[in-house]
DNA sequence: GAGTTTGAAACT
DNA sequence: CAGTTTCAAACTC
């Protein structure tokens, strides 16, 4: 090992000026200004802080992992932690390295990209005076791992903001890039980098007997009690961990314990971890909490398969994607165009009729009644469309291809425009121009204010009614999926128990089952699981069906920007 | 504060 | 890439 070369206890010898340390090229750290001292650390010089680019977010900033905002172990040695409050480091960590010369990632200062300063290390080379050695060490480290100085905690699109957690002043966002590999700590101690960074373990982790997942009773307890309570719960957690580990090794429940070189019985070979996103697939070891199932408790992963994601996932997550929403919005936009077309055509017809009658009468109440009747009829037609059983899909740009966008001069209500917010780029401008009419001649195309109001109301009613139906369909689909997941989980659990009770049993059956499930192939005992594509297709087809059905039922077509009755049907 | 435990990093 | 060793922080007593 590299050992002492004349202990240079550097704390007194080093300047603490900000410096750009060379971390080997563009990936090197960026100096951030020395933090102003706080009263609590007035006696301490803050180190020049160097963080790898990109600049880190407060909650995930340092590398190694930031200290949790809460809880801070009551026994934590005060001098060691980099307390972060409101993103402001209050105190720099001081390492105690003895054998690494502070030139390896063992050293938190070095790993954080900062010079040692005021540390208790021995034979430190992580200072200006040993810049060459330090640079070599940095290069060697980067050679081993190019991301060595990058943040370990990546913000995650799947990060969760759980109300309960937020209430407990804990923000759980991001995930560990490499994941932890804890075996004995239950990921509820600061040994665990995830826990230390105040994040949930993720599918990147290969930990055993993980309790650092959303819904974990132990974990929640840690974040909700007062300090004494936390201590008590920590002890309880310790007891739980100790007891769980027992003589049999890791705290994986016997039924679920992973045998070395063998897949974890439950779902270790699942290709799609999203299957675990259902709460019923989340870890519930020793938990009788929110998670309704007693399935897998271990987040033991497998190199071939990521461990389950442990944060709560909506039933519709993975089914409804942003693009799906966009599509749905597009469908709504189409409806807007269609209904606007209908209404405008109706108005035009009315106007024409009026013109023909000319000076005879003013607009009669009879027309009003007729308008109302028609709108009711149209609404019923569209409502009907919601349940149409078609599978045609609607492409987002279909509205434009139909020539039924707002550029045709159809009025759009503010509410409808709001619905179209996601279509701003392509739709909003068009709708604006549409509102203005061709050539911007508003007065010549728009009906009277009263008619506009009625038009808006009617249009919105139609659109929103249809949208409501779509949402109802989605709810139904989610419920279907929930039921299937529940059934699946139950049968899975029974399979495991049976497999383990049989000494010859192994994980292959479960593996196969999971593969089947994840491939959407029929489970031997289960109805086929609806895949995301199927769900989305179904959901979208609700809209698409409505749209296409609407198209076929609406007695108008848009040609050359003008509305014309289909088949010369009379209005 | 000494000793132990733990898990990441480094090494083989 | 898996197993082992080294290391320093976290933790216990």
UniProtKB/TrEMBL annotation:
Cellular compartment(s): Nucleus
Region (Disordered): 1-90, 283-302, 346-412, 552-571
Organism of derivation: Heracleum sosnowskyi
One GO BP: regulation of DNA-templated transcription
Compositional bias of kind Basic and acidic residues: 7-21, 69-89, 346-358, 365-382
Domain called CRC: residue spans: 91-215
Protein's recorded name: CRC domain-containing protein
Keyword terms: Nucleus
């Amino acid at each position: 090992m590299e050992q002492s070369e004349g202990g240079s206890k550097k704390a007194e010898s080093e300047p603490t000026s900000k410096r750009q340390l060379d971390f080997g090229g563009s990936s090197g750290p960026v100096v951030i200004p020395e933090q102003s001292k706080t009263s609590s650390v007035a006696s301490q010089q803050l180190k020049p802080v160097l963080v790898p680019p990109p600049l880190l977010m407060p909650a995930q900033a340092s590398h190694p992992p930031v200290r949790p905002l809460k809880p801070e172990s009551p026994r934590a040695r005060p001098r060691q932690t980099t307390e972060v409050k409101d993103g402001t480091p209050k105190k720099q960590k001081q390492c105690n390295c003895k054998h690494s010369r502070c030139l390896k990632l063992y050293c938190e200062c070095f790993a954080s990209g900062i010079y040692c300063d005021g540390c208790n290390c021995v034979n430190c080379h992580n200072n200006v005076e040993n810049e060459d050695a330090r640079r070599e060490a940095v290069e060697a480290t980067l050679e081993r791992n190019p991301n060595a100085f990058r943040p370990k905690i990546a913000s995650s699109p799947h990060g969760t903001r759980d109300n309960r957690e937020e209430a407990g002043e804990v923000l759980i966002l991001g995930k560990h890039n490499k994941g932890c590999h804890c075996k004995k700590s239950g990921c509820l101690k600061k040994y665990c980098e995830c826990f230390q960074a105040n994040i949930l373990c993720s599918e990147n982790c290969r930990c055993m007997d993980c309790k650092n997942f959303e819904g974990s009773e132990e974990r929640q307890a840690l974040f909700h009690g007062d300090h004494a309570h936390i201590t008590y719960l920590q002890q309880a957690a310790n007891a739980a961990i100790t007891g769980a580990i027992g003589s049999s090794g890791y705290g994986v429940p016997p039924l679920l314990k992973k045998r070395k070189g063998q897949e974890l019985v439950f779902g270790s070979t699942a290709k799609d971890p999203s299957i675990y996103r259902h709460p019923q697939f989340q870890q519930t070891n020793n938990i009788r909490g929110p998670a309704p199932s007693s399935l897998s408790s271990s987040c033991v992963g497998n190199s071939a398969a990521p461990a389950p994601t442990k944060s709560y996932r909506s039933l519709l997550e993975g089914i409804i994607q942003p693009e799906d929403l966009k599509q749905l919005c597009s469908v709504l936009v189409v409806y807007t165009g269609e209904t606007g077309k209908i209404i405008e055509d109706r108005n035009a017809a009315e106007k024409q009729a009026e013109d023909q009658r000319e000076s005879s009468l003013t607009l009669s109440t009879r027309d009003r009644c007729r308008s109302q009747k028609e709108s009711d009829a149209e609404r019923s037609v569209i409502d009907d469309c919601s349940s149409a059983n078609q599978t045609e899909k609607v492409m987002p740009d279909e509205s434009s291809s139909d020539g039924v966008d707002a550029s045709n001069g159809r009025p759009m209500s503010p509410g409808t425009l709001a619905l179209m917010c996601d279509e701003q780029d392509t739709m909003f401008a068009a709708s604006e121009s549409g509102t203005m009419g061709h050539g911007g001649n508003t007065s010549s195309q728009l009906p009277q204010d009263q008619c506009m109001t009625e038009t808006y109301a009617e249009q919105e009613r139609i659109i929103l009614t249809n949208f409501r139906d779509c949402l109802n369909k989605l709810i139904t689909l989610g419920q279907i999926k929930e039921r299937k997941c529940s059934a699946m989980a139950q049968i899975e659990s029974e399979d495991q128990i049976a497999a383990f009770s049989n000494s010859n049993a192994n994980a292959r059956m479960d593996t196969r089952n999971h593969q089947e499930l994840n491939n959407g192939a029929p489970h031997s005992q289960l109805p086929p699981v609806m895949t995301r594509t199927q769900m989305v297709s179904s959901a979208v087809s609700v809209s698409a069906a409505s749209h296409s059905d609407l198209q076929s039922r609406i007695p108008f077509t848009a040609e050359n920007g003008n509305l014309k009755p289909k088949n010369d049907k009379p209005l």
